[in-house]
Amino acid sequence: MVVKSPEPHHFPHNTLDIIKKTNAVKLTKKYAFQADPFIIARNNKLYIFYEAFNFITSRGTLRCRTLNESLAEIDDVKLEGFDDLHCHLSFPFIFYINDKLFMIPESSERREVILFELTEFPARWKKVRTLISGSALTDNVLLSINEKYYLCSTDMADNLVIHTASDLAEPWQQISPELEVCNHHPRGAGAPHYIDNKIYIVTQECLPGEYGKSVYIKALQKLTAQHYEESLVDQLSASVNNSDGIHTLNFSSDVIIYDTKHLAFSLLSPFKKIAYKLITRRRNRRFSSA
């Protein structure tokens, strides 16, 4: 869902008000699921990087949908440079360092966290290095605090996992700071934002057997090797558009984007779930034995 703000957007203070009172544009559904949108505004166009899920292969691929100033869709391309991973990909977390654009997608099936760099905007990317191996981590978000990098992820049980390094090219070390949290929903739901000397993060509400019920906006009060502290600022619930869930929230200067899900009964649903479990189980066995 894409919302063009009719007034200045001051995250997080009026974010929910804008979403609630502004008509959202729904992107054309081209794939079984379209999720995890991250955006870049460039040359009067909006580039939406997202996961496109295919039930036949039971895995997501990464794509970029391009919109013009009127939010009309003008292009949709598959991102290049990721096919060699042979795994489900999602959550294309993008960020700039020294004017270079990087991405850390979720590749938990491979039990790796991998850094990619853009070579030709928006579709061509190259692998830079594997940051972390041996762990299945989801929805990785990179933070830069006091000249150190922190990679916040969740394991398959939705526990917060944090790694740190002084440079992207250096070895990453897992840390276990004392946690002072506002709730037990740490899974990433979008990019962090540094505003007025404050750091804001977004996480998704995950329930047993279900993730992406709503999105929490939090202020990150402190993050060191010894201590992690956050406080709740607001919550974007599925009631904002009468859906069954929301699990990603991002924005540019005047556009807010979020994904949403609607649960619908289908006679094929049980067979799709069985096929998905069989295919993903086979992939997981292959990566586990590699």
Automatic annotation (TrEMBL):
Q: Which domain of life is it from?
A: Bacteria
Instruction: Name all Glucosamine inositolphosphorylceramide transferase 1 N-terminal domain ranges.
Output: 26-234
Do you know which InterPro entries this protein is assigned to?
GINT1_N, Glyco_hydro_beta-prop_sf
Pfam families, per this entry?
Answer: GINT1_N (PF24793)
Please report the name of this protein according to its UniProt entry.
Glucosamine inositolphosphorylceramide transferase 1 N-terminal domain-containing protein
UniProt lineage: Bacteria, Pseudomonadati, Pseudomonadota, Gammaproteobacteria, Enterobacterales
